[in-house]
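Forwarding the complex inputs:
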Amino acid sequence: MIQGQIPIEEYKTGNTVHKWDLKKIRFAHRVLAEYNYKKGEVKQGYANRTLYVNLSNNTIKEKQVTNEMKKKFTGGRGFGLKLLWDSIKPTTRWDSEENDLVITTGPLCGITQYPGFGKSLCLTISPSTNIICDSNVGGFFGPYLKFAGFDALEIQGKAKHDVVVVVDGEKGKVTIETAPLEETNSHLLNDQLTHMYASEDSDKSRQKISVVSAGKAAENSWWGCLNFSFYDIRRKVPRMKQAGRGGLGTVLRDKKVKALVAKVEKFDGLSNNPADPVTLAKIGTKLHQEIRDLDRYQCNMRAVGTGHLVEIMDAYDLLPCENYRFGSFPKAPKIYSPHFYELFTKVIPDGCWHGCTLACAKTVDGFTVMTGPYKGQRVTVDGPEYETMGCGSNMSLWDPMWILEFNFYCDTYGIDTISAGTSIAFYMEMYEYGILSKERCDGLELCFGNGEAVLEFLHRMAQGDKGEFIQVASKGIRRVKDWLIKKGWGDRQLIEDVGMESKGLEYSEYVTKESLAMQGGYGLTLKGPQHDEAWLIFMDMVNNAIPTFEKKAEALHYFPMWRTWFGLNGLCKLPWNDIEPANNAETDEPPKVPEHVQNYVDIFNAVTGRKIDKKEIILQSERCYNWQRAMNVWLGRGQRKDDWIPYRSMGPVTEMEYMSRKDRYDKQIVEKLGLKKEEVEKMSVQEKMKILYDYRQDQYQKLADAVYYRRGWTPNGVPTPQKMKQLGMDDPTMLKMLQEKIDEDRKAGLNVWGGKYSKGEKPPSIDQKYWEKW
Amino acid sequence: MDEPKTVKILKFHPEKCDGGKGCEKACSQVHFKTDEGGDKSAIRIFKEGKSYKMHVCDQRGLCLDMCPVGALTRRKNGVVWLDKDICIGCQACVGFCPINAMRKSDARITPFKCISCGACVRACPNGALELVEVNIGDIKEVVYHKQGV
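Prediction (whole assembly, two chains):
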């Protein structure tokens, strides 16, 4: 039996304890700007104002949240889009002075009664994609920002020297302070700032602080993530969750922000001032009970977090191995979740916001660091989650302890494990083909399975190594593709096909070759290939529940809209379908988890006092989803060409891949392309690969056709002014811009379907300007 | 700090109970300053056939490891105690109590539970309730999810 019921003050992690001279560190701070504000109450989920900070001219002010803003943009990610639209220009890039880094909360964010209600939504122009990247993250910062008085925090401009921005909800004061002496790497910096700004020397006081930071590697890489802290009163550690995707930490460090600090005076179960707390508590308790009774038979989140997916993905040929060449691997059982279960700390609550009993935020405490600047120290490693474990398999690294080391350094150096892992897996494949070599990689032997070289790469990146490869490689796959092609190293087509990026962002860790709908789930997205818009592999590939283009398009409409709603409100997706009611399979639409959808409707009404239904949820999302796509168009992207995906995500690029799943592919050529079995047997592998390539590329274009049509966009993927008006998004500048873009596309002959429709097949509409009739 | 070894828990003698529910009224007086009983009482008496049964916290303490803010502690007298000034009303303890003995009333967001104060014992005219001392080691339980079980 694992020991529990240890008094909180006596709980020990075995971590190395640091003693900081906090007086000296704080004495070195110089206040550059100070803004005193009137503390206010959150009313039915909204603080009703946002905070604006400009680091170039040290301005701090507040902006009012209007009823119209709430109606059109709901909150959270929606507010972020609205604030960005007001602040940036179509020429704004990630490192432009006017680029905005926005952290928002959402009206439901900060509720403690229902699991998963503490997420912050972070938005900015991403270095990876040059369009808006939104990232959903746990930790206490979002809820505390709201309880301190603001629905969103907007950071514009760049400081001259390292600064911290402190939102002190206790004093009602916002300051910009220089911060020359603090550490930069997050696990130390967050510890320092948590102790420095806590009102008293107690764990309860430290729990009222949350820090956002990014480490040393975020300064030198485009994979920078934001680490959001949440102080754990048992471990006595400011643990952290990451806004990982899209280089948000890179933007933070480019603005010379060392950290953001939010502090609350107090908070309780009613800090969000919900309209109907009784209903809230009832719905929340029902879900807690569901988790209590069913999680162990469903996803086992409470035991191993998202890590339970490794064995499932391996079993279904979906676990990315050796840069997505394969979906399973003989060594994969070495990183199945039971191995991590052995290492994870057990028994104590592991939610990244209070009240989350799904508790997927696992840690390994007292982990002894094996390499780099913290070698020999004992630390808490937050994670690993499934995606980080999947990075292990993708780089052919099968040692759980190595994955922990990789996880720890990515976190504290402030880089996204997904982007780093997927990128390095690509570099490794290039290394295997001789396109990269030890010499070309600044002395790194980046072959599959070389964990030492990967860690050395991370350390050198954090040190700001000026090697040509390190400099390019730390900016991600797209830049390395361009670099290799420019150097004339390797075959261009091969490089484009195997490097798993779309829009400039690296793929997350799922193999999508056999699920067309999921290819769309990655490609037909707003920010790039991330699975947070739709995860349709089982629906599509395993259950064959959406066989036609129309059905796939409906799924690629509904699920991205549904999941966008979590971002508008400051919620986590996991308690929606990673725990399901016992009778879910017997409902009309099990993949939607109808009972939980109703929970969210009821909670929205219980907090805001409004009366919405499940259709209104989709409408709220559609408004913001289309707005974001329109902003991508405005920024020069967001069209069919930008929804391109690499062939590695669609099918076998190399002969080895084809041969490893030969029966499957041969069978498909017979069944789907209508060739005779005897003919197929006579064909060479190259010939079979070619016809499969053409077929699958065409399938993807046909899918895009169906999805654009369903979403109310032109055949080139541009949201139409008619659709925007239908949704009530009537900003004249936006509508004019869209019309001009559509007219430009018409002149360029781009308003046409992408698929090749033979006899008996129909495009979604034969009317060339179908949208004008809406 | 010396950890408590024993705790007093309620013992029920159904043969002495007449269903008057004076215990519930006394309990709601302790927690909500009202004699409504029912949903505002930590102890509940239900009729079962011709007899009665008691439903109340047995101080096993599984909830202690559920609380994210440390509002639940085992006090010196061994009783599992909810500090409502620290509690942030998340209902995790309510939802996870295996015997549903952590209570929540509509009257406030923070839950409440039996604190073995003896008000109910004193209120019962028939002596149907008593507080008995048990070893914590014998009743203690932790929230522990094994993988795949």
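The first helix of chain A runs from residue 22 to 27.
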